[in-house]
Design goal:
By secondary structure, the protein is mostly helical. The chain is built from two helices and no strands.
Length: 69
């Protein structure tokens, strides 16, 4: 892998372009896959009550009142 500071001719440009495409494809395969989306969905479900409590606490502090359910 060449650094962008070592690019001196078109062969280096092509090599850098191929490496960039390979890294982007790998990231898309890992983070854009169905299992990754399922994992993000399940983590969001797990963290939702905590996030809701923090949002209500911030609202109470900002409005100097108590959230009434």
């Amino acid at each position: 892998m060449t650094s962008i500071f070592e690019i001196t001719d078109w062969a280096h440009v092509a090599s850098f372009f191929v490496w960039t495409l390979a890294v982007c494809a790998l990231a898309k395969a890992i983070f854009g896959s169905f299992p990754a989306a399922e994992l993000q969905y399940r983590l969001a479900l797990r963290d939702n009550p905590r996030r809701q409590r923090l949002n209500r606490l911030n609202w109470e502090v900002a409005n100097r009142t108590k959230w009434d359910e």
